[in-house]
Amino acid sequence: MKKTFGIGVIFALLCGLLWWSGITFFGRQIVSFYIKDEVVITSALRYLNIARFSYIPLCLSFTFSYFYR
Description:
Layout lengths: L1 H33 L3 H14 L3 H14 L1
Helix pairs in contact: 1-2, 1-3
């Protein structure tokens, strides 16, 4: 169980880091793929620049809640 939990935490950190780095470095390209309106893209990027800091803690929180059930 400890090994499985450790692997889950590692994968959660990698997943959170992947999304964080994707939004940090390629945020405009990702949003522009779905939306063409420049006003909406600017607003989405402002939101994502704040929300990206919650990705890693959120992934860890999901991992802990899953394993503690």
